[in-house]
Write a structure and sequence with these properties.
This protein has three helices and seven strands. The chain has about 140 residues and is α+β, with helices and mostly antiparallel strands. A five-stranded mixed β-barrel has the order 1-2-3-6-5. The chain has a two-stranded antiparallel ribbon with strand order 4-7. The radius of gyration is 15 Å and the shape is globular.
């Protein structure tokens, strides 16, 4: 447990890329979820993960269309990687918000979840900029 806590802590203090398996444990919106790092001793550490490569609309959006799209993205994410799915978190780095990490999320079959959301038009490529989803 201390080893995993040390890894998580170091992610917040440095911007070192890291890769690890984790189990999906809950959802916040279409591009942010909770995952549990698996340490092999049944002592797990829960973290909030934001997709490094995709932005989705907010469920509580600024306009009706954003809210509709945000709900669709949230529902699709829960279908693509249901709770308890073990995913690979790649290129893990600290996020701009304390207590959250950023990562590419890879399914057991090798597909990138962010790319799936982008291809299905419930998300868009994210490079750090914030654009409105309202038209």
């Amino acid at each position: 447990m201390r080893y995993i806590f040390g890894i998580v802590l170091s992610l917040f203090l440095t911007n070192v890329a890291y890769s690890t398996p984790a189990k999906v444990s809950g959802f916040i919106d279409g591009d942010t979820f909770f995952a549990t790092f698996l340490d092999g001793e049944n002592k797990d550490t829960k973290v909030m993960v934001r997709f490094a490569n995709v932005d989705t609309p907010e469920k509580d959006g600024s306009c009706e269309s954003e809210t509709r799209l945000g709900t669709a993205a949230y529902n699709r994410l829960k279908t693509v990687m249901p709770k308890d799915t073990v995913v690979e978190l790649k290129n893990v780095t600290k996020d701009k918000f304390f207590g959250r990490i950023s990562a590419n999320v890879i399914l057991p079959d090798g597909r990138d979840v962010g790319e799936i959301l982008i291809k299905e038009n419930v998300g868009r490529a994210f490079k750090g900029e914030h654009k409105s989803w309202c038209k």
